[in-house]
Amino acid sequence: MPVHVLAILIPKADRIARVEEIAQGMSTDVEKNEPGTLKYQWFRAGTAEEPKIFVWEVYADEAAAETHMASPGLARFIEIEKQEGILAAPLQVLTLEHFAGFASR
C-alpha cells in the first residue's frame, strides 16, 4: 500500500535560494537511488517575505518510506539545517491518509 507524506518547510526569507539548491540535489539523489519513491515533488507557496515549501512524497510501501528517512540526502539536509539555520520553524512531516478524491483520469 502506498505511503503518502507531506513535508512542510518554512525557510528563512534570506535562505530560500539555499533551500532550493539543496532541493535540487536531493531530488536528483532520490530519483537515482530510491526506486521505491514514486513521487517526490517540491512546491513553493507564500510570499518572498514569508516563504513556504511543501514536499509531496509518495512511496511504494513502508519500506520505501523508511529507506528515504534513512537516506544520506535527508541526513545531509538535517545537518545543513543544524549548521546553517536555513529554516525559520521546525520541519513538519505529516503522513497522509487518503479518504476521498482521485489522482488522475
From TrEMBL:
This is ABM domain-containing protein. InterPro entries: ABM_dom, Dimeric_a/b-barrel. Residues 3-96 form the ABM domain. Pfam families: ABM. Transmembrane segments: none annotated. It comes from Achaetomium macrosporum.
